[in-house]
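Reminder to self: keep the SMILES exactly as supplied, no canonicalising. Ligand is fe (ii) ion.
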Amino acid sequence: MAATEHTQVKTIEEFAHQPEEYKDAVRKIVRSHAINELYGAQVFDEPAIALAPTPYAKWLTCRVAMEEYGHHVRFKELGEQIGVPEEQLVYRPGGAKRPLSIFDFPLKTWEEFCVTKLIGDLAEILQVEDLLHCTFHPLRNLARMTMPEERFHAQFGEDFCTDIIEKKAGRTAVQDAIDRIYPGLLGFFGAPGSKNNAIYRKWGIKIRTNEDMAADYAKRCAELCVGKLGLKLPKVDLPKARHA
Ligand SMILES: [Fe+2]
Ligand SMILES: [Fe+2]
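Structure tokens returned for the bound complex:
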């Protein structure tokens, strides 16, 4: 069904009158963004300020960290407006909600951070793109507001990686980080044939299947890392589409 054929939910008030399946689906997405934006900011962006090698790099990294915390704040606010309990919108060690496992590697170097922005934020851009035509307009508006900042983060990654790989040791460090970080990022798009994803598409909350998004992500990463930067991508088997 095309997005235009779905009922459009323009306000929080209209949201309250939607079927439970719709409300649950939207809450799941908002909750996941609120948690992952916060956790990412805590484990990557904020520590990266100390790793940044120059005042200029620190300044831009502060801006990235500020914006990632800002994304959490906006998603948390929306989550509260649509009835998600506060404890499900924040990450606390040992708490009810776990962030995605892609965040499970400890950030140690500036090069690793630049690679997380280069290809991690590209993964985030794809996720946000899928919400740009969402039937729940407050979430669609949030995606539209967030998008230019995510693009800035990915460009930040590309610009700094471009500088770093001019030197041989830098090229080796960036390649090594890509080899370790890229495979986990493909998992960011969820399992093929996911029931949740089918529900998101049924209600026009999202547009694409997990496997379509993972395939598009792999293609865009190859264009960027191999085509533009002259690096390599490790070979990873893409999740296969299952047709019922
Ligand atoms: Fe973000
Ligand atoms: Fe970002």
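Points to follow up:
Residues 9-228 form a domain with the Ferritin fold (CATH 1.20.1260.10).
The pocket of fe (ii) ion (ligand 1) is lined by residues 37, 68, 71, 124, 150 (CB under 6 Å).
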